[in-house]
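Dock pyridoxal-5'-phosphate; give full complex structure.
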Amino acid sequence: MTELQELAIFGGKPAFGEDHKLVVGRPNIGDRDELFRLIGEALDRRWLTNAGPLVQEFEQRLADYLGVKQCVTVCNATIGLEIAARALGLKGEVITPSFTFIATAHALQWLGLKPVFCDVDPETHNIDPAQIEKLITENTTGIMAVHLWGRPCAIEQLTEIAARRNLALIFDAAHAFGCSHGDGMIGSFGDVEVFSFHATKFFNTFEGGALTTNNDELARQMRLMRNFGFKGYDEVDSVGTNGKMSEVSAAMGLVSLNSVAEFVAVNKRNYDLYRAELAGVAGVSVIDYNESERNNFQYIVLQIPANPEGLTRDDLRLALWEENVIARRYFYPGCHRMAPYDSNGPYDLPVTEQLADELLLMPNGTAVTEDDIRKICRMIGLMMAHPAEIRSKLESAQAAATTS
Ligand SMILES: *Cc1c(COP(=O)(O)O)cnc(C)c1O
């Protein structure tokens, strides 16, 4: 495609058909035969959940891979965050970014805790340690930070603040499986780290997650909480929930674990290609990763700064959607602008709001080919070079939609 008129918003055929819609977060899937073999064994055993052999093996292999003492798998990361916060005895207020998936805030709110939103650093997109201390009150009991895009938080600074102010430190590591920080893998920092293995994440178990910690006593408590608080067959001495991972999910996890290197290689190839293809496109940049660390390269994050002469992030997004490229705004509009948190304002989170308006996530993962990426990037180049035409077309389409 070289001509503006061939774009779908001008009536051209969408670049991708309905059967090849490109979305953010199409799952990475490992060896099917091995998956079916493991599931078959679980069926033969008739042991489908409740810390079965596959879950036990998966927890051991995860702990080894991450270099952490304890790994407690869970049914999803949202329940995992709740279990972590509860096991650490959090009360009152917890400082957390607003620039995250809503589950981070909801997990706290669900427990009756108050998420206190802290702004993020414009470079790293992670919670800004310089702003945390101003938000600490006598009711603050913890910090829940997020390794956004898998890029590690300012771990040393956060650890120092938490220790000095006697706060618990939880990392929402939902994005960061397979990522490292210095000598350690993400998973071994803070009091506990919480991974998500949701289907859309880099590494999936259909639904699932894991709590990782070097604190044996904390792990013991989290295991009890995950299973209704059962200490023995009919002995319960504390409140618990049902956070267990099933054997089918553990089977998927074991299979995914065998393919981590391959998933990273494909993501990295795609990431490099997006960067190369967009290098000459004015008004668009691709966020970078510290290449001296291990990354999963799952997130292709474009930044389109507001510019009165150019296209906005949303103009570009809508034009791409017409092509069946379902690029997504993360995390728009920010947790603090969604219910119920929006009524607790006013908030002073300028960087969060700017990023929520400027970032656009592109399709990545093993379902995306190099040809797909070249095609997408050529269209982005064409669109960005013709802001007036694209915008007037979008405006007339919008006007037609509101009058009809
Ligand atoms: C996906 C995600 C979660 C929630 O994970 P689930 O496993 O779907 O419950 C929490 N925090 C962040 C940052 C996420 O991206």
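Observed: Residues 76-78, 100-101, 103-104, 146, 172, 174-175, 196, 198, 209 surround pyridoxal-5'-phosphate (CB under 6 Å).
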